[in-house]
C-alpha cells in the first residue's frame, strides 16, 4: 500500500474566530477540514479557552501538505495568538491517494 | 515507562457508512474505536463532506497494530473512496499495555 | 518558522472519571486541555467503553512537554486502567511558541 506523508494541523479556539480560520485554511491551500465542538480549558495569555460560562470552543483539523501546514500555522499565529485564546499544533500523518489533498492549479 | 508503538487510524465521512466502517474495523482486528460527530467540509470527488444542509458527518478513531491499520485503510479505500465523501489517515501513537490492542486468537 | 516538539496525550474513558483526569493533568503540569464527547466501543477488561445504554464517554487531549506526558500517562495507567474502561495514547506534535505549554515555576 502506497502511503503519502502529509501534515495534520489542529487548531482549538473560541468559536467566534474558527469559521474564519476554516475559510482561511481553505484559501491557504487546504482542500477540506473537519470541525467539532470541544470544552476547552487553558492558561493562555489573553483569556481561558472556554472559561466558566464562556464562549463555545471549536476544534478544526486540516490534512494538508507540509508547506500548506506551515502557512496555516504561521497565519493563525500571526493573526490570532495575541488576542484570542487559541492553540494550534502540527503532526505527521499518512494518507492513501495523497494527490487529493493538493489543490490543482487553475482548479 | 514501557510504551508500545501502535497506529491511530482516523476516518471521517458521511454517517450513513460510518457504522459499517466501525464494525468492519472490529472485524479486521481493532479491539475498539471511538466515534464523534464533526462538521466536515471537503472537495472530494464524489461530493462534499457535510455539504450545506447535507448529512451528518462522523469521525472514527481506531488504535491498532500496524498490520491492522493497513488492512482498515486498504479496506476503506477500496470500498468507499470512489463513491463516498470520506477521508482517512494514519499516524504513529504510543500506548501503555500494548497487548490490550491486539486480539487474542480464539477470543 | 520555529516549531517546538511536544506530546499530545489523548485519554478516552467514562465521563465519571474524566473531569478528575482533566484536573489531575493540570496538577501534573499541563497548561490546558480540550475535552469532547465521543461514542466509545471497546473490549477492555473491566467493561466496554460506552457499551449499549452505557455511560457517556469523553475524550481529553493535553498538549504537553514529554516529561509531563509520561507523568499523565503513568498516573492514568496506575489509577484507572484496572477498574475503568479507559484508553490513553501519546503522539508527537509540534507547536509554535512552545514556552506557553510549560508552566512557569512559582506560577
Short description:
Chain A contains 2 helices and 4 strands; from the N terminus they run βαββαβ. Chain A is α+β, with helices and mostly antiparallel strands and 107 residues long. In chain A, helix 1 packs antiparallel against helix 2 (66-80).
Annotate the secondary structure layout:
Three copies of one chain form a homotrimer.
Chain A: E1 4-14, H1 15-27, E2 32-42, E3 57-64, H2 66-80, E4 86-95
Antiparallel strand pairs in A: 1-3, 1-4, 2-3
Helix pairs in contact in A: 1-2
Strand order of the largest sheet of chain A: 2-3-1-4
List low-confidence stretches of chain A.
45-53
Largest sheet, strands/sense/barrel of chain A = 4 strands, antiparallel
In terms of DSSP E residues, the strand content of chain A is: 35-45%
Largest interface: A-B, 22 and 27 residues
**Class by alpha and beta content of chain A:** alpha+beta
Radius of gyration of chain A: 15 Å
Instruction: Specify the overall morphology of chain A.
Output: elongated
Q: Helical stretch count of chain A?
A: 2
List the helices and strands of chain A in order. Answer: EHEEHE
What proportion of the residues of chain A is helical, as a percent range? 25-40%
Mean pLDDT of chain A: 85
Give the quaternary arrangement of the chains. homotrimer
State the main characteristics.
homotrimer; 107 residues; alpha+beta; 26% helix; 37% strand; elongated
Describe the structure.
3 copies of one chain form a homotrimer. By secondary structure, the first copy, chain A, is an alpha+beta fold. The first copy, chain A, has 2 helices and 4 strands. Chain A has helices spanning 15-27, 66-80; strands at residues 4-14, 32-42, 57-64, 86-95. Chain A has a 4-stranded antiparallel beta sheet, covered by helices on one side. In chain A, helix 1 runs antiparallel to helix 2. Chain A is elongated and about 40 Å long. The two termini of chain A are 28 Å apart. Residues 45-53 of chain A have low confidence and may be disordered. Chain A binds chain B through residues 1, 3, 6, 8, 22, 26, 31-36, 63, 91-97, 100, 103, and chain B through 10, 12, 36-45, 48-49, 57, 59, 70, 73-74, 77, 81, 87-92. Strand 4 (86-95) of chain A pairs antiparallel with strand 4 (86-95) of chain B.
Amino acid at each position: 500500500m502506497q502511503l503519502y506523508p502529509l501534515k495534520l494541523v489542529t487548531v482549538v479556539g473560541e468559536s467566534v474566530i474558527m469559521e474564519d480560520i476554516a475559510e482561511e485554511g481553505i484559501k491557504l491551500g487546504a482542500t477540506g477540514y473537519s470541525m467539532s465542538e470541544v470544552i476547552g480549558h487553558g492558561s493562555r495569555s489573553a483569556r481561558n479557552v472556554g472559561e466558566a460560562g464562556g464562549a463555545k470552543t471549536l476544534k478544526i483539523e486540516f490534512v494538508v501538505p507540509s508547506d500548506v501546514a506551515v502557512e496555516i500555522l504561521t497565519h493563525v499565529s500571526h493573526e490570532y495568538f495575541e488576542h484570542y485564546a487559541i492553540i494550534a499544533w502540527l503532526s505527521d500523518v499518512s494518507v492513501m491517494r495523497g494527490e487529493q489533498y493538493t489543490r490543482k492549479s487553475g482548479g
